[in-house]
Amino acid sequence: MSDAALSLKAFAKINTQLRVGPLRASGLHDILSVVEAIDLYDTITLRPVEAMRVTCSVEELSGESNIVAKAIRLMKEVVDVPPLAIHIEKQIPIQAGLGGGSSDAAAAIRGASALAGHSVPKAVLQDVALACGSDVPFFLGESTAAVVSGCGQVRESLESRPRLLCIAKPSTGVSTAGAYSALDRIGVREDLGDITDPNALENDFDAVAPAECLDIMERMVNLGAECAHLCGSGSAVYGLFTDEERCNTAQSRFEQAGMWSRVCKTLDRWEHQTWMR
Q1: Quick check: 170 and 210 in contact, CB under 8 A?
Q2: Of residues 13, 104, 169, 204, which has the active-site annotation?
Q3: What's the pLDDT score for residue 272?
Q4: Domains in the chain: ranges and CATH
Q5: Choosing from 70, 135, 169, 204, which is the catalytic residue?
Q6: Buried b or exposed e, range 208-241, using 16+ CB within 10 angstroms
Q7: pLDDT (tens digit per residue) in 47-67
């Protein structure tokens, strides 16, 4: 076991396709989705200590209720993980549909595996990831773009496609549970079909998007986006641009309006972890 700190990037994602099916007996919905990682990330730092603690730059996310703490507790059931001090430096906004918490959990799983001092089978790590949440397995995958199905299982890796995005988030957040409940009220798909065109863009949650998100979608298109959809279940919205100047202008306009907004690109590969002295 090393006593050095380990720093990892936990990247955000968008769902370029997201279909929601019936509710299972487990309480989870079937989904079929194309997920793509983007170059927005939190930074997770893990350091062996005498007693575990989880802190975050967003104070309300510190402590045992953080999904990162859950990930480490589950890891301890399958491998000898030392007590860790874990700090999360947040850049990905919460309740945005960008997968920040899930990516943080995946980074913690990777980091705990490295600090355990011996190899942990990938299948075991994937089981831990799925037990943490449906978005977590994607962030442990080898590909930065994938088809996921069921309750988040990675079904097929895809070649990454270069995409230029403006992402904007209103002050309103969207809880994942609330978004699924809203879809249940209007009716989910009975048949998810199959992904025949990975380049197509659709999101079932658009049908229950808050008014603020619908307004952002309209403004994105007016500012030059080819299309605009929710990021996951929201409340962040991405606009797909082909013109960098228009994309930068859109980001500036949303920021001037008091919103969190970033220009992002899809990732073509995951970046490596960094050991720190």
Answers
A1: yes
A2: 13
A3: 65
A4: 5-159 (3.30.230.10), 164-265 (3.30.70.890)
A5: 135
A6: bbbebbeebbebbeebbbeebbbbbbbbbbbbbb
A7: 999 999 999 999 999 999 999
